[in-house]
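tool=predict chain=A
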Amino acid sequence: MELYGIFYNANAGDGKSEETAKYVKNMLKDNQIDSIFLTAKNAKEAVTMIKESMKTIDGLIAIGGDGTLNIVGTAFIQSSKTVPLGIIPGGTINNFAKRWKIPLAKEEAMKVILERNTKKISIGECNNEAIISSFTFGRLADLSNDVRQSEKRKYGLIVYPYKALKHLGSKTSYLVKYKTEDKEYLLKTWVALATTTSFVGGIPYTSHDKNAFHVSILNNISFSKIKAYLTYAFTGNLKGKKAITYLAAETLKLENVDKTVSIQTRIDGDPGPDLPLTLNWKKDFLDVAVPK
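tool=predict ok
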C-alpha cells in the first residue's frame, strides 16, 4: 500500500488545518492509500521532519498557503529529491494554488489529487531555501514586515493598502545592484518583486511568460506617481507602468550599495534574509497535482 505524508501547520491561515488533515486522511484511506500526519512547532523542525519522512513516503499532501508550500519546497531542495505533491489550499496567501488553478475548496482539491494528473513546475531557491511564489524587498516589503498575522486575520487584505499609504513619502528608495546571467543594473528601488510565474494572486501582471524569475522593480515613488503606487497596493498589477523596470532571469544577484543600510526581504509572504543574496531558478523542480 502506498504511503502519503500529510503536512499541515496548525497555526497557519484560518487555523482549520488539523480538521482538514483528518478529512484528507479519511479520503486517502477510502482510496486504499495509507498516510501519516506531519506537523511541527516551527518551520525549521518541519523541514527536518519532511526530509526524514521522504525516506519512506510515496507522495506528500500539503495543507496551507504559500508559506506552507515554502517549507515543503525547502525540504525538497535540501534533500535534492522530490515526491509527487498535492495541495489543499488553506493559508492567508494562496498565489501558487491560484496560478495553477488548484481549487480552494478542500473537496475539489482532493479530487484533483486523487486524479493523479501532475505537472512539472519551476520554483526559485535562495540560501538553500525555496521561493514558491514570490520574493520581494523594498519599502513595501518593509510595510509587509510591519503587518502581523493577527492583523491579516482581523482586517484581511485591506490592511496592506492602509499600511502602504502610511509608508508613502517615508524615506527614499534603496540603491541596489542587480546582476543576471546576462546583464548588470544599478537601480533605485522602492520595491522589487520577483515571482515564479507571471501571475500574482491568479492575475497576470506581465505579458512575458519565460520559464524564469519575473522581476519587476518600482524605481521610485512620489505623489506624482501615486496612481501607479495605489494600483500596485490594491491589485499587485505592475503592467505597463513607466516607473517600473522589468527583467527575467534564471540567476539574480542582489547587493545593496549602501552597506550601512539593512534591506530585509520577504519570501512567500514571510520575513526572509537581508541582502546581499543570490536567487537561483529550479526548472521543472516540483511534480504537482493539477486539474486536467
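The radius of gyration is 19 Å. Residues 134-267 form a domain with the Tumour Suppressor Smad4 fold (CATH 2.60.200.40).
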